[in-house]
Design goal:
The complex is a heterodimer of chains A (113) and B (114). Chain A is mostly beta strands and 113 residues long. Chain A has no helices and eleven strands. In chain A, β7 and β8 form a beta hairpin. Chain B is 0% helix and 50% strand. Chain B is globular. The mean pLDDT of chain B is 93. Classes of the chains: A mainly beta (113), B mainly beta (114). At the A-B interface, β4, β5, β9 and β10 of A face β5 and β10 of B.
């Protein structure tokens, strides 16, 4: 069973704060890492697909970095807004695993106005 | 807009009933997936399919079966529902252009088995 850990489990920040979360995954046989945002009562939505060590992706105020050699990815949100409140999920794909995604338990972000 | 549609948002069934959860996607995707989400646990893969009439077991297939007779539709079947199958069920699809392609999710079915 693959271990994909996300920290922290939950986070409360004030509007305007910048924040970041961590996703840890096995460093061997890396194939890809996904980040998803899941707002309450909506569908999870893909933020980033990352495949190369050193990848940096950006979408508006949200960015992510990837270190496959040490097995972690960071998600950053700059100037958090209440609409950023959601659960952020990472999912790891190991080479040779039938390319199935293994999800972490998520980080629940609450942004207070 | 791309869409993955799950037939029911909420469903209440009795122990022992046969339950069908339906999922339809309009993106001509080859791959379709069924996950369940439980408090304190990550999304766990039940079954997936990479082509019509093809299926593969995920991490927790026990008590479930699936059907994919048409490319756009992937059904999850609970042969005899039990209380431990009370959960949020999410369907997803992806293209098979490359195996790292992102998933498109439905909005989920909250199933309660009484």
């Amino acid at each position: 069973i693959l271990n994909v850990e996300q920290s922290p489990q939950s986070l409360h920040v004030q509007e305007g704060d910048s924040t970041n979360f961590t996703c840890s995954f096995p460093s061997s046989n890396f194939y890809a890492l996904h980040w998803y945002r899941w707002e309450t009562a909506k569908s999870p939505e893909a933020l980033f697909v990352m495949t190369l060590n050193g990848d940096e992706k950006k979408k508006g105020r949200i960015s992510a970095t990837l270190n496959t050699k040490e097995g972690y990815s960071y998600l950053y949100i700059k100037g958090s807004q209440p609409e950023d409140s959601a659960t952020y999920l990472c999912a790891f794909i190991r080479r040779g695993s039938n390319y199935k995604l293994t999800f972490g338990k998520g980080t629940l972000l609450t942004v207070n106005p | 807009d791309v869409k993955v549609t799950q037939s029911s948002r909420y469903l209440v069934k009795r122990t022992g009933e046969k339950v069908f959860l339906e999922c339809v996607q309009d993106m001509d995707h080859e791959n379709m997936f069924w996950y369940r989400q439980d408090p304190g646990l990550g999304l766990r893969l039940i079954y997936f399919s990479y082509d019509v009439k093809m299926k593969e077991k995920g991490d927790i297939p026990e008590g479930y079966s699936v059907s994919r007779e048409k490319k756009e539709r992937f059904s999850l079947i609970l042969e005899s529902a039990s209380t431990n199958q009370t959960s949020m069920y999410l369907c997803a699809s992806s293209t098979s252009t490359d195996w790292y392609e992102k998933l498109f999710f439905g909005s989920g079915t909250q199933l309660s088995v009484l």
